[in-house]
TrEMBL record:
It catalyses: tRNA(Trp) + L-tryptophan + ATP = L-tryptophyl-tRNA(Trp) + AMP + diphosphate + H(+). A motif ('KMSKS' region) lies at residues 195-199. This is Tryptophan--tRNA ligase. It is found in: Cytoplasm. GO terms for molecular function: ATP binding; tryptophan-tRNA ligase activity.
Amino acid sequence: KPRIFSGIQPSGGLTLGNYLGALKRFVEKQDEGIETIYCLVDLHAITVWQDPERLRQQTREGAAAFIAAGIDPKRSILFNQSQVTAHAELGWIFNCIARMGWMSRMTQFKDKAGKNSENVSLGLFAYPSLMAADILAYHATMVPVGDDQKQHLELCRDIAIKFNNDYKVDFFPVVEPLIEGAATRVMSLRDGTKKMSKSDPSDQSRINLTDDADMIAQKIRKAKTDPEPLPETLEGLKDRPEAKNLVNIYAALAGMTPEAVVAEYAGAQFGTFKPKLAELSVAKLSPITTEMNRLMKDPAEIDRILGQGAERADAIAQPILAQVKDIVGMIRSR
Ligand code: TYM
């Protein structure tokens, strides 16, 4: 039976990139009736320093965003990672399976560590091995993510394969990344060659799920574009990263293909297209923001939901972890 796992770091407010590349698709998968497990990965978040009170706040805000976007905590399992100890335990075992060389090739690590890799946490280096544990602790086989997680998921496959080979078992399944739709890589509104990111120093570069309608409209109005009108076909967007990004965002929000968007707006100036995009963005995002704000008024209720989710997650992960320990040769006598 197929099972989906995915996670989002509570390391900042969620962006339109997280929404279109991940959250919106998490809801679609849930609504297709597949078993879905979604996690706020707080253990991953602390690979870079997080203020404790903010981490708590951002974890709750992340949970509120999931629910406001349409995740039903009865149908999906929704929890924060640190409440299920199997993640950290299996993560350690995977640290002993994964090779230093594999980790050194991770582009996200190289980007985040920059030139000063001597001074980043060991956890940041081991990050993808914990991510593999997140998925494989549930024997999940399908993982909806944005394009930037592709390499991490390839590493997850490598870990599963090496574990199976080393212990001569057929235990961990092969994981399939689900990277689908028009917005697998939403770009910065200021620079069409950079990913939209919660860690970009410029708030103008992104739309946050907490932005109000005026802010969203203002950011789209000011988004960088070129002076040309929209082309007749997608081909015409090839060397126009900013224009292409806005078309992709429109397509993902409207549930259209980029081809259909270009066909509808062929020849239109950005002076026409941007207000339409702003209107659509507000229409799609404002109800989520409003619901998030409502949910955030009752933090105890959010914590209760995360706790119940964690119990259900634990019930799936513990037996799998017990089997792993048996395979590896660890005594379990209590
Ligand atoms: P994170 O928290 O950086 O991002 C969460 C999800 O949002 C997607 N995403 C984007 N999609 C499109 N355009 C963008 N600009 C954009 N920015 C972010 C990400 O691809 C991701 O799907 N390592 C993960 C969290 C994680 C995880 C896991 C994911 C931990 N364990 C297990 C899947 C399975 C991360 O840092 O995501």
